[in-house]
Amino acid sequence: MKSKGIKNLLIDLGGVLINLDRQRCIEHFQKLGLQNVDDLLDIQNQDGILMQQEKGLITPAEFRDGVRKMIGKAVSDKQIDAAWNSFLVDIPTQKLDLLLKLREKYVVYLLSNTNQIHWEWTCAHLFPYRTFKVEDYFEKTYLSFEMKMAKPEPEIFKAIIEDAGIEPQETLFIDDSEMNCKTAQNLGISTYIAKAGEDWSHLFNLK
């Protein structure tokens, strides 16, 4: 894919930068006594507790209380957070190096459907590298729980285009969801669907 004419990059977090382990997360919640973990992790359920958290419609405390209700017994905040964050594995250092390199040629933004618990853990544990922190990798971070909207809604892309003052035709969006990419394409943004764990540095000529 040619990155000709591209000045801006919108990069997703989970599955594109962060390696995820859904099965590990399911097992950790099952150990806490949550039987139907799929209900919790159902991102398609717009009214579900996960999507409410990703859109910032409920607080982390309300999310934890909701999980406790689903489990049906007393479980500490710490236990819930540990199970929840077990979804997140790592960001390979070559991807962090790549982000730093991309910033020399492009304006790089993060666009993620995420929640406060995951985001705080990621900033504390996954982005710190050498002397770098999260703010060193991106011009700005656009997070669903802060914006109160989520991909694949067109509104989130429109809000970013306006806020960042970018031209869709000069922008490449890298995401692991076909549905999210389709919405971006409809707005004139170039897209690339990344596979889990893929090294997508081949998109760029960074010689």
Question: What does this protein structure show overall?
Answer:
The chain has 207 residues and is of the alpha/beta class. The protein has helices spanning 22-31, 37-40, 49-54, 60-71, 77-85, 93-105, 116-125, 144-147, 154-164, 178-186, and strands at residues 8-11, 19-20, 88-90, 107-112, 140-143, 171-175, 190-193. The strands form 2 sheets. It has a 5-stranded parallel β-sheet with strand order 5-4-1-6-7. The longest helix is centred in the middle third of the chain and has 13 residues, at 93-105. The radius of gyration is 17 Å and the shape is globular. The mean pLDDT is 94.
- What is the terminal separation in angstroms? 16 Å
Beta-strand fraction estimate: 5-15%
Shape category: globular
Work out the helix count: 10
Which secondary-structure class do the elements indicate?
A: alpha/beta
Mean pLDDT: 94
As a percent range, the share of helical residues equals 40-55%
Computed Rg:
17 Å
Poorly predicted tracts of residues: none
Can you list the strand order of the major beta sheet? 5-4-1-6-7
Largest β sheet strand count, sense and barrel closure: 5 strands, parallel
Instruction: Give the tally of β-strands.
Output: 7
Order of secondary-structure elements? EEHHHHHEHEHEHHEHE
